[in-house]
Amino acid sequence: MRMPVLVFALFNENVKGGPGTERHWGLFYPNGSAVYEVDLTGRRPAAPYPPLPPATNDLPYPGKLWCVARTDRHGAVANETAVREQVATACADEAGLCDPVRPSGGCHLPDTVAAHASYVFSAHWNRFSKQYGGWCYFGGLAVETTVDPSHGSCKFPSVTPG
């Protein structure tokens, strides 16, 4: 039987910041030793594989997290239309959620798609993550950060995992 597989990462990223789970997606440790016994040829039967190792990295990140728009190194969003659609959907879900980024709101400036989306994504995630177990994704247009994006009087809502 053939099964299509996508390898997300070959190596664990031992120096990557953020929540611990962000560092442990690889098939190999940074030193090259195997995290799991894997036969990428597909010839080895499943029976001789040992059980998976116990989880040692399943503790939630101990600090605050924010959900911000995924941007390139220049601060621009990759797909402005899709980001605007996600923001519109989030704003329609909950009355008042987007008031801070409207022209009279305390988070209107800077008046950019990335800045407004970041506030809305963080506020929406903060409001619904505990109740519904949501995550910071927004169609792949958002990313978690441990760096507080608040500025001046504009305070971004955060989530504390756990």
What does this protein look like?
The chain is of the alpha+beta class and 162 residues long. It has two helices and four strands; from the N terminus they run βββααβ. It has two domains: 1-58, no CATH class; 66-145, no CATH class. Helix 1 crosses helix 2 (113-132). The longest helix has 20 residues, at 113-132. The model has no long low-confidence stretch (mean pLDDT 85). This is X8 domain-containing protein. It comes from Triticum aestivum (Wheat). Pfam families: Glyco_hydro_17 (PF00332), X8 (PF07983). Belongs to the glycosyl hydrolase 17 family.
Write the layout of secondary structure elements.
Blueprint: E1 9-11, E2 26-28, E3 66-69, H1 80-93, H2 113-132, E4 142-145
Parallel strand pairs: 1-2
Antiparallel strand pairs: 3-4
Helix pairs in contact: 1-2
